What we know:
The chain is α/β, with parallel strands linked by helices. It contains 19 helices and 32 strands.
Amino acid sequence: xxxxxxxxxxxxxxxxxxxxxxxxxxxxxxxxxxxxxxxxxxxxxxxxxxxxxxxxxxxxxxxxxxxxxxxxxxxxxxxxxxxxxxxxxxxxxxxxxxxxxxxxxxxxxxxxxxxxxxxxxxxxxxxxxxxxxxxxxxxxxxxxxxxxxxxxxxxxxxxxxxxxxxxxxxxxxxxxxxxxxxxxxxxxxxxxxxxxxxxxxxxxxxxxxxxxxxxxxxxxxxxxxxxxxxxxxxxxxxxxxxxxxxxxxxxxxxxxxxxxxxxxxxxxxxxxxxxxxxxxxxxxxxxxxxxxxxxxxxxxxxxxxxxxxxxxxxxxxxxxxxxxxxxxxxxxxxxxxxxxxxxxxxxxxxxxxxxxxxxxxxxxxxxxxxxxxxxxxxxxxxxxxxxxxxxxxxxxxxxxxxxxxxxxxxxxxxxxxxxxxxxxxxxxxxxxxxxxxxxxxxxxxxxxxxxxxxxxxxxxxxxxxxxxxxxxxxxxxxxxxxxxxxxxxxxxxxxxxxxxxxxxxxxxxxxxxxxxxxxxxxxxxxxxxxxxxxxxxxxxxxxxxxxxxxxxxxxxxxxxxxxxxxxxxxxxxxxxxxxxxxxxxxxxxxxxxxxxxxxxxxxxxxxxxxxxxxxxxxxxxxxxxxxxxxxxxxxxxxxxxxxxxxxxxxxxxxxxxxxxxxxxxxxxxxxxxxxxxxxxxxx
Length: 683
């Protein structure tokens, strides 16, 4: 090797190191800008360490992406520190522990209020030890004291007041997991925000002073809520933190993490494009969707890829705003994506690949597009299967539970209160509600308040009462949140992100999907600072409107900066490289067992479900399938025994009737009878 070659290699290595250095610097700048852009809240509390109030405010602030500036009270220094924070434009609220109020002089409190007029202020952790005179002073006489309620012996609930602070939560009832509360004695025209109700009593626990932006929250000791994948656990979790969650939502507004819009979807499982499908006439269902303003997605089983009727397919092509298709398993056999012990990972991988290949053929035959969103049959898959969905560039998976069958439920507020999670292979997993059961209005109110997409599903038997069976649910959602946009699952996943406004007018984005549509609704150009959790170690690319775009990935964090002109929209996609050749995958229906199951399922949905007894059997089998299987096995065993007994008796009777008597005489002339077979007799 020549000295010139060595020099070139040395220069190249220095160039690589320099490029890596620039990348690290750029990453640090992006991460710093994301952190520095967060809005702040000022928390003034006692210096005696952690307490429940401080912890609850901190958890709620983190949920909204707000940074807490925790100032411990020190005589002579706190006022000057608070004054410095109050000058910061990123400050959106102040929280003061009730225990600190005696240490604040009248002069200091007036200075706090006047420095930022209108800045929301929460006095938190009020209990029966808080001096009534201080409550009267800070509330301008509208709150006179804090009292302890009698011990309740019957379950209670929180009732949320109607108003601009509570928005979609107005009138909601939330579970009260306590038998005793501290409550405010309102002596003036203070506005109750939350009240605890036991029997006929209404006890204010969060209130707003009249004509002031000062809020008062009573002390709420922490309670232990078990961590489970049950989506309805959301109500208990929200109720336990309702005061700081509602206050900070109001105080921070667009500076807090929030969804870009309100979205909803209704999915009809198992159907294929034939008219009718069980109780469902597609033209009639479309008419209901148009009249009541909802969108219907068919969870389509890929096994049916070439069975669509042309007239029904034409209906979907003509009305993509109301009708759409997503993927429902592959063959939809029982527990198709169940435990690996009975459904090996390799088989699940082949099914996921084949499902895509079949849906591409469906698209080719019908000219109807589909969303690569997977709804697993019967139950959600194990966690490792999520990585296969991601590798194949599925958009998301949507199921009644958003936790894989073999995974533990993640702790934390983000999982408990959001519809979607990236906790498993950084792949979007969303929860949905069965429209065939009663859904708590308060559950939907929390979703609307937090901007969660509301996803519903049902099967064809749901429409036994009439084609308008879903109308009441759709009407409730549209009344709860009039701006709700009913879209396809694919469209909803592409709007699955959180955004917050920065001090400089730019936008922070926390992507919850690998494919997002961003729109700059401001009247000025803006830069979007995008971050996404990304666990994949395999090769990937980022495109914007189909063209490669630079990004940085360090550890499990992917970031990029995207300028968007005023009023413009951009599509950002993360694509994962794989070696799949969809066109080469066998899509034939070669399994006799699978074919029999699918045809029997069609018979169930289109024939058996047409009677009341048939629908009862379908519901009972869905709920108690194992018991029915045992019963069927027992009946089959009894039937085999009876058949065997019948065959035995028939043969015995046949044998008895197959001989004929013959009169014979012996040598001495005595007569005797001899039974001979007919053939021998005729010989």
